[in-house]
């Protein structure tokens, strides 16, 4: 019983075997000892809450925040003991913050529930009781036979049983899973492929044994045992048999498959695990400031409590004649009274902690993130893609980046491959007008103008046409004879490939005379100079990153068994025993120096005995349930040896537009750029030089091809010594994957020292996990720099998730990087606008927002503390409870929120054209302890002026009347506790609002509306509250107080004088600093202020509004009168907003 309880609570999960056994159509054994395994149902649950757990779970998550929990404690204290303020003063703001956050999170979760219900309620067809039964997706069970029609999405992970094709094959696209748009071929085992009707499938008796669910999309290990005529046939099952949930059936009428993984155990669901929460540096600073203010609060409460008892040590103050104690109060414990008074003072001063800060920051981040998507400068017209924000929590982190880690292929380059050169049998060739021409021969020379192919050339091109995973669009017919010509006119066939390299090579081969015509069952058809040849595909040895090659075994038309293999030169050349190995190696290095991507091609002939041995080994490895990958790797290595080298290919990947300018701008901004790529050393260095990552004048240091710790350590020491000796010269470092592994194993500190002294670092031959390890290494170094990783492929996901900020490029290698990133952009060049403009603005806005919040709460609560010195620390409140409640919610909330959304302290174009301005905000410069101390001291200073200014100007030369009225000479007016407090509060609201106005550089009509509107609203509300609705209130403390206060000319004089006195010193300080010690940002502000705009300027507006206004604007030149004489172009009808942020 105890074990069962522990299992239900999750402390002792039940034992689960490494494999699962699935009886097709749920035909379980009839003997009584069999206990069916329990599997998950097919419901997809992406929601976080249910109707029953929303309230407790959401409240628990919200009260984990320090500020929320603190205000809950204060609220409970107010309920339990007699405190000077009403519980409403703490309860109402807390309720507002909790409610707003809960509504936002509840709405987001409702949308998830809605999406889940659509998916789980989708209609599907299942084979049951000898017929097709229509049911809902959520009702599918493991073992059910499911029918899927053309263009439908697979509702579960299925093992393919049969299709409408005789060979049991089908085509699918996995674009929604990994972004690959090419058609993938999946095949059923021969024994089930013939079962194409529901009746035949209903008679199938078979058992599938496979691994338990795992997230790897490309790994599946299983076997199917089919009972036929009293014998059992065992067939291996691999990834080619598994149809994944979320993939879509293409070019196939229908298929039947058996459900093996359902619901949250499907590979799609396992890949959508929630990412680890990233926290920005600003949020960490905010929590530090909160703790400091908690200490200030405790200090004020303890000091007030001590001074109260020190004051009451005198008997006349302990129990004055007008406030006698009860018998219970005289006999109560002094310790309990001290604690009670301490808690009362804690309640009185609790507003120094800004509860509304969190909700304002959340609103600022959420609303501010829309400006990135609306920015037309980040919109790519060719692909119709705009910038995408996946998380708004890291907006300000874009302004703090110190290291950028970037992939090369598809990020710095276009990932559009073009065949340039090849080496065949030791001779270099180029493609000239659709013909292979040996190097040094022109098109007009005798050898350069031939229409036939030599034997070696033809074999090389056939290897290229047969060793790949390219598919042909099924919409195209086989009748390609007509338009095809051997003289270089391109074939009309349209190829699809997951690898752009393969597509480029197959297209190049078709242009020069050897055309891949497609596959039919297990046959591959090739046309060589118009002559069709059919090869039987026997085995495919799939590519994997460890082997870095792929192979096919085919049977030629003559019956010969051939192995064709292609891959990186480091994996092909060592396994070659014949061919022009040395010449090809030289050619490969030459290709790499030109920045070309290289592949080597080789082949091997098998004798019948060798092929029989290979077939036997492959079958044993592929049917193994345990350690299948290791066994297959051993067999592949056994097959791919004693190769005969055919040649090598060189494919060009063009650089993206403005990559060089972007990298140079990042360098000027003080950001170090590291390129992490899987390409070979020479190719990576060549691309780094061409894109400006490495300068021609830079001293290139190398840490490559090390096999032992000792040689790696010695090389690192020599590099460190060389850097110290040549400290004036800029250095660049090149590291390869193997050397990096050695360096990180035992020499991490030495390696980091070398890297930090280099202006640029290039890591080549990198595995995906190595990329993430390098990012983690920098991220956790003692300096704790802010890192950004940018990439476009699935191999960049780990790096993107590891960095503080992850950016996905919407490229041609799928959407996995985009889905797992924090932000997504279409091109690398957009990174400069994202960091230098958006990042800069977001950081300045939120840094000012956070510190302003603390400032205005210091201004708010310090007069309350000072007032206790004038009321014998009796815990009398200075402000009315309604003012206490609405100060942060209504009177001072909107100006700072609008500031944090629209502020542009420097012209956006100036920020982008002067990357050096980015240095001014690096290392959290505006949220350090120096600016924090300035804002805090300013808050205390202003609070002293509010209180003592009001006291001196309005409290002198008065006489106190018995009824609490104060008689001023020549006039009577109400001037008591509430009048004085209201005067202080009025001065405070105006001053803090005007302080926000002084901080604002970019004024829009919205800024004017909320700034002056907040002050007007306060006056209107106070008149309404004290003069109209007072009869409906339970207390009449504020009866006509505000009206009487404003009817006094001296009160108006005091308000104006105090506000001017507070802000005058601040203005003088700003003016002196800007003229005597201006920062580079302040200089840029003076430049940008000279921008002459002759028409309406559009910035930071919703896209629809911006477009409406853009349609009215013509081309206009705007001159910036700066030292650089920058010329800006204002937007046209088709143009962009120049101030869009």
Question: Can you walk through the features of this model?
Answer:
Residues 818-1079 form the P-type ATPase C-terminal domain. Its cofactor is Mg(2+). The chain has 1141 residues and is of the alpha+beta class. Strands 16, 17, 18, 21, 22, 23, 24, 25, 26, 27 and 28 form an 11-stranded mixed sheet that branches. The protein has a 9-stranded mixed sheet with strand order 14-35-34-33-15-29-32-31-30, with helices on both faces. Helix 28 links the parallel strand 34 (805-809) and strand 35 (823-825). The relative contact order is 0.08.
Strand content: 15-25%
Main beta-sheet annotation: 11 strands, mixed
Low-confidence segments, given as residue ranges, are 3-15, 446-450, 477-491, 957-974, 1091-1141
Beta strand count = 40
Quaternary class: single chain
User: How many helix segments?
Assistant: 39
Mean pLDDT: 78
First CA to last CA: what distance? 62 Å
**Compute the gyration radius: what is it?**
37 Å
Give the proportion of residues in helices: 40-55%
Name the structural class. alpha+beta
What does the overall shape look like? Answer: globular
InterPro entries: ATPase_P-typ_cyto_dom_N, ATPase_P-typ_P_site, ATPase_P-typ_TM_dom_sf, ATPase_P-typ_transduc_dom_A_sf, ATPase_P-type_domA, HAD-like_sf, HAD_sf, P-type_ATPase_IV
Protein name: Phospholipid-transporting ATPase
Cofactor: Mg(2+)
Domain P-type ATPase A: 123-186
């Amino acid at each position: 019983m105890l074990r069962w309880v522990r299992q239900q609570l999750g402390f002792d999960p039940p034992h689960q075997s490494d494999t699962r056994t699935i009886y097709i159509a749920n035909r379980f054994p009839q003997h009584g000892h069999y206990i069916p395994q329990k599997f998950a149902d097919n419901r997809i649950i992406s929601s976080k809450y249910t109707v029953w757990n929303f309230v407790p779970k959401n409240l628990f998550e919200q009260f984990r925040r320090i500020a929320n929990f603190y205000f809950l404690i204060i609220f409970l204290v107010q309920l339990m003991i007699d405190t000077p303020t009403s519980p409403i003063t703490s309860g109402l703001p807390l309720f507002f913050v909790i409610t707003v956050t809960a509504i936002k999170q509840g709405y987001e979760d409702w949308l998830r529930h809605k999406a889940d219900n659509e998916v789980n309620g989708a209609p599907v067809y299942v084979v049951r009781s000898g017929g097709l039964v229509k049911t809902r997706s959520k009702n599918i069970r493991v073992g059910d036979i499911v029918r899927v029609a053309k263009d439908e999405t697979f509702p579960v992970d299925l093992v393919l049983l049969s299709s409408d094709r005789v060979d049991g094959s089908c085509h699918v696209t996995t674009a929604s899973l990994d972004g690959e748009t090419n058609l993938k071929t999946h095949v059923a085992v021969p024994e089930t492929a013939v079962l194409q009707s529901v009746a035949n499938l209903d008679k199938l008796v078979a058992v599938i044994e496979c691994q338990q669910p795992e997230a790897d999309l490309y790994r599946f290990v299983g076997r199917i045992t089919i009972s036929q005529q009293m014998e059992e046939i065992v067939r291996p099952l691999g990834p080619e048999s598994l149809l994944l949930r979320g993939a879509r059936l293409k070019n196939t009428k229908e298929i039947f498959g058996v459900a093996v993984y359902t619901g949250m155990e499907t590979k799609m669901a396992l890949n959508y695990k929630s990412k680890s929460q990233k926290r920005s540096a600003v949020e960490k600073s905010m929590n530090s400031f909160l703790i400091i203010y908690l200490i200030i609060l405790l200090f004020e409460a303890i000091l007030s409590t001590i001074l109260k008892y020190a004051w009451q040590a005198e008997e006349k103050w302990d129990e004055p004649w007008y406030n006698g104690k009860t018998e219970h109060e005289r006999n109560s414990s002094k310790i309990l009274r001290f604690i009670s008074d301490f808690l009362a003072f804690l309640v009185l001063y609790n507003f120094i902690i800004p509860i509304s800060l969190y909700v304002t920051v959340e609103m600022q981040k959420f609303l501010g993130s829309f400006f990135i998507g609306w920015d037309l400068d980040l919109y790519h017209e060719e692909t119709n893609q705009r910038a995408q924000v996946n998380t708004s929590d890291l907006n300000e982190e874009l302004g703090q980046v110190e290291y950028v880690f970037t992939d090369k292929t598809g990020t710095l380059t276009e990932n559009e491959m073009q065949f340039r050169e090849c080496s065949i049998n030791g001779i270099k060739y180029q493609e000239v007008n659709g013909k292979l021409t040996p190097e040094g021969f022109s098109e007009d020379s005798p050898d350069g103008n031939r229409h036939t192919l030599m034997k070696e050339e033809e074999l090389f091109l056939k290897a290229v046409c047969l060793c790949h995973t390219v598919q042909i669009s099924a919409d195209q017919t086989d009748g390609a004879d007509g338009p095809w010509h051997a003289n270089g006119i391109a074939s009309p066939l349209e190829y699809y490939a997951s690898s752009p390299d393969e597509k480029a090579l197959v297209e190049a081969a078709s242009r020069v005379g050897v055309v891949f015509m497609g596959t039919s069952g297990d046959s591959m058809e090739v046309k060589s100079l118009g002559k069709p040849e059919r090869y039987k595909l026997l085995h495919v040895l799939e590519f994997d990153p460890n082997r870095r090659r792929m192979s096919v075994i085919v049977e030629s038309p003559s019956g010969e068994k051939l192995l064709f293999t292609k891959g990186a030169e480091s994996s092909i050349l060592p396994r070659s025993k014949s061919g022009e190995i040395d010449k090809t190696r030289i050619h490969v290095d030459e290709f790499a120096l030109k920045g070309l991507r290289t592949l080597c091609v080789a082949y091997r002939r098998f004798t019948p005995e060798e092929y029989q041995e290979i077939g036997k080994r492959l079958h044993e490895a592929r049917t193994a349930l345990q350690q299948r990958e290791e066994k297959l790797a051993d067999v592949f290595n056994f097959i791919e040896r004693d190769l005969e080298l055919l040649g090598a290919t060189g494919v060009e990947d063009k650089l993206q537009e403005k990559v060089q300018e972007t990298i140079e701008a990042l360098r000027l901004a003080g950001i170090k750029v590291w390129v992490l790529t899987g390409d070979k050393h020479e190719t990576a260095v060549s691309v780094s030089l061409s894109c400006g990552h490495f300068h021609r004048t830079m001293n290139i240091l190398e840490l490559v091809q090390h096999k032992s710790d000792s040689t790696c350590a010695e090389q690192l020491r020599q590099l460190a010594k060389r850097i110290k000796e040549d400290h004036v010269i800029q250095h660049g470092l090149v590291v390869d994957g193997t050397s990096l592994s050695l360096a990180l194993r035992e020499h991490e500190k030495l390696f980091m020292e070398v890297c930090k002294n280099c202006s640029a670092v290039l890591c080549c031959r990198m595995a995906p996990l190595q990329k993430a390890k390098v990012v983690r290494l920098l991220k956790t170094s003692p300096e704790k720099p802010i890192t950004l990783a940018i990439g476009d492929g699935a191999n960049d996901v780990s790096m993107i998730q590891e960095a503080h900020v992850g950016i996905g490029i919407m490229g041609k290698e799928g959407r996995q990087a985009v889905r797992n990133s924090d932000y997504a952009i279409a091109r690398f060049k957009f990174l400069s606008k994202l960091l230098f403009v958006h990042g800069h603005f977001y950081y300045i806005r939120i840094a000012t927002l956070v510190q302003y919040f603390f400032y205005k709460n210091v201004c708010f609560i310090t007069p309350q503390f000072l007032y206790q010195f004038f009321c014998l620390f009796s815990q009398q409140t200075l402000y009315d409870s309604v003012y206490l409640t609405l100060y942060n919610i209504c009177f001072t909330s909107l100006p700072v929120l609008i500031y944090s959304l629209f502020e542009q302290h420097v012209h956006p174009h100036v920020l982008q054209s002067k990357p050096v301005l980015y240095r001014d905000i690096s290392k959290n410069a505006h949220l350090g302890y120096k600016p924090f101390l300035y804002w805090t001291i300013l808050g205390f200073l202003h609070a002293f002026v509010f209180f003592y200014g009001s006291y001196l100007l309005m409290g002198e030369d008065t006489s106190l009347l018995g009824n609490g009225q104060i008689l001023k000479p020549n006039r009577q007016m109400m001037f008591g506790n509430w009048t004085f407090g209201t005067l202080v509060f009025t001065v405070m609201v105006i001053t803090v609002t005007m302080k926000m106005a002084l901080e604002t550089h970019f004024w829009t009509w919205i800024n004017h509306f909320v700034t002056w509107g907040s002050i007007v609203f306060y006056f209107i509300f106070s008149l309404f509250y004290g003069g109209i609705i007072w009869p409906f209130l339970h207390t009449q403390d504020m009866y006509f107080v505000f009206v009487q206060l404003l009817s006094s000319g001296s009160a108006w004089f005091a308000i104006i004088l105090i506000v001017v006195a507070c802000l005058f010193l601040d203005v003088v300080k700003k003016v002196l600093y800007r003229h005597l010690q201006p920062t580079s940002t302040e200089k840029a502000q003076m430049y940008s202020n000279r921008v002459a705009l002759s028409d309406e300027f559009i910035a930071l507006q919703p896209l629809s509004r911006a477009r409406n206004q853009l349609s009215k604007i013509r081309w206009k030149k705007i001159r910036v009168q700066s030292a650089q004489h920058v010329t800006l172009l204002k937007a046209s009808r088709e143009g962009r907003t120049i101030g869009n942020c």
